[in-house]
Amino acid sequence: MQHFGDALIGRVRALGNPVCIGLDPYLDRIPPLFRDGDMSPGNPLTAPAVEAFLKAVLDRADGRVAVVKPQIAFFERMGWRGLRALDEVSAHARKRGMLVLLDAKRGDIGSTADAYAGAYLTADAPMPADAMTLNPYLGRDTLQPYLNAAKDTGRGLFILVKTSNPGSGDYQDLKVGNRSLAETVADSLKAMSGELEGPETGWSSLGIVVGATYPGEAERIREILPKTIFLVPGYGAQGATAADAVKGFVKGPSGLEGGIVSSSRGVLYPAGSDTDSAAAWEQAMDAAIDMAVSELGGAISA
Ligand SMILES: O=c1ccn([C@@H]2O[C@H](COP(=O)(O)O)[C@@H](O)[C@H]2O)c(=O)[nH]1
After folding, report:
1. Whose CA is nearest to atom 11 of ligand 1?
2. Residue numbers annotated as active site
3. Is the beta carbon of 29 within 6 A of some atom in ligand 1?
4. What's the structural domain count of the chain?
5. What does the pLDDT look like over 256-292, one tens digit per residue?
6. Which of 238, 267, 289 to mutate to test the pocket of ligand 1 (most atoms within 8 A of CB)?
7. For the chain, which residues score pLDDT lower than 50?
């Protein structure tokens, strides 16, 4: 059975960069090369066009990137055809050796969490993901069904701790004693993280989300959870730099490690990609991927 934490860290070490490409298909930004019809969410041609676009992105990323993060909202927006496209795109990524981290941010009472875990994480899940994001707001008992599934299947979990958005401080920075709520949540995940530590690298399959836009908080949270992989959004389109993004990383055998840095809009829609020329689009996409790979690869080797 694959252990998600070991598999992810192994691939990042092998490739020398922590890039995670976010798959957020904004319908009005799909390049002309792939568009079909009016690209309205209910148009039956829209989801296949999105699927073709994302598969082409994955082909450009082949051999350069360890993991991709489809954002389920953009697929749900297209109804059942969108979910079918998500399934196809995920299968395409896996065929190219990339892990699939589903950004679904689920969070509900335990009995409903059971159903979500059964959709994405259990051995018989119809839409399997290698890992998924979760919202811990309803309490630790609501994370248990996902933890059970992760133990059974080796899949991974990423719990929201300190998100990248400007309003994340509204609740996450509130003081609980002398710590922020985000740090308190991190502390409460210690035991669960320990239960999923990998036999090869020691890194846990229970990860957390820590925005690149709050590098100081990333350093404090790393002290609380030394073996927990960080999923770091906020680099690129949200303004954080590569140096900010790796603040919570630690020294490993081949450079800094312990996290992946996601970039969605910055990679998917670069300058020059708004074209109906296949060659020009490929060139723009290669340049965008190269930029993320070299900036973030450089930041972990510095
Ligand atoms: O704290 C978080 C958690 C998740 N996200 C997700 O990332 C992408 C946005 O990425 P860009 O690189 O800014 O396009 C989107 O799917 C969010 O839901 C986040 O931004 N912050």
Report:
1. 264
2. 105
3. no
4. 1
5. 999 999 999 999 999 999 999 999 999 999 999 999 9
6. 238
7. none
